[in-house]
Amino acid sequence: MPELPEVETVKETLNHLVAGKTLEKIEVGWPKMIKRPDDAEAFVMMLSGQKIHRVARRGKFLSFVLDDYVMVSHLRMEGRYEMAAGSEPDKHTHVRFHFTDGTELRYRDVRKFGTMHIFNPGEEQTSLPLSQLGPEPVNDPSFTPAYLQQIFAKTSRTIKTVLLDQRAIAGLGNIYVDESLFRSGIMPNKKARLLNNGQIAGLHKEITATIAEAIASGGSSVRSYVNGQGEMGMFQNQLYVYARRDEPCKQCGTPIEKMIEAGRGTHYCPSCQR
């Protein structure tokens, strides 16, 4: 699933590709993706004639800011926006956005897990799914070591479970949680409430740095992720542990191990993380 750095990269690409364009026609091939309104025909009518002013991001969600509405989109596992290049849409193209200038934006999703919601401006922040999100790990003044101390003290869950919880921190997923914990020297299955203040401060620093570095590299293309122009991210070349099982740790040479934590495959170095 694309995480914050990947979705941020898609946001920037879409702003370059579609901001300022006006929607002429929308085709929905898989109506179950449309969650609000609960009718695909109403979705099409609401968007027709609307101009896209900009694309924003909150956590792993994209928000298309239009004349009269905001469309909130989640890519889920395999969702992808791409400009049509003159070819016929394949069977995985489920929503087509036709613009008045003759160009077309397509939403492709192999697993059909993606979602789209339409809100009146401002309602998207106080309604599900965005209303349940925690602070952002970058450029958000509320994301502080003190905030982490507060949420960790209230739970009996492991640190990885807490960091994956979008209600606690918006945008983190399996890749960047594993990487941040490695860089902090913290085992993923350690109870969050057992971290001392020094460990929490270090973790806060590494989460912020890891996400910032990944954004600068265009995200991580470890499976199918590409941006709206079909370009891969490059941060996978800088990963310390994620998807590196049995490979030597870049810091100590110990083979990277994998376990299941929080229901997810979790990579760690048994020497560097204790």
Automatic annotation (TrEMBL):
Q: Which GO terms describe its molecular function?
A: 8-oxo-7,8-dihydroguanine DNA N-glycosylase activity; class I DNA-(apurinic or apyrimidinic site) endonuclease activity; damaged DNA binding; double-stranded DNA binding; zinc ion binding
Name the needed cofactors: Zn(2+)
Q: Which residues form the FPG-type domain?
A: 240-274
Active site: which residues? 2 (schiff-base intermediate with dna), 3 (proton donor), 60 (proton donor), 264 (proton donor)
**Full protein name:** Formamidopyrimidine-DNA glycosylase
The UniProt family comment states:
Belongs to the FPG family.
Which species does the entry assign this protein to? Answer: Sinobaca qinghaiensis
Q: Which residues bind DNA?
A: 92, 111
Catalytic reaction(s) noted: Hydrolysis of DNA containing ring-opened 7-methylguanine residues, releasing 2,6-diamino-4-hydroxy-5-(N-methyl)formamidopyrimidine; 2'-deoxyribonucleotide-(2'-deoxyribose 5'-phosphate)-2'-deoxyribonucleotide-DNA = a 3'-end 2'-deoxyribonucleotide-(2,3-dehydro-2,3-deoxyribose 5'-phosphate)-DNA + a 5'-end 5'-phospho-2'-deoxyribonucleoside-DNA + H(+)
Protein purpose: Involved in base excision repair of DNA damaged by oxidation or by mutagenic agents. Acts as DNA glycosylase that recognizes and removes damaged bases. Has a preference for oxidized purines, such as 7,8-dihydro-8-oxoguanine (8-oxoG). Has AP (apurinic/apyrimidinic) lyase activity and introduces nicks in the DNA strand. Cleaves the DNA backbone by beta-delta elimination to generate a single-strand break at the site of the removed base with both 3'- and 5'-phosphates.
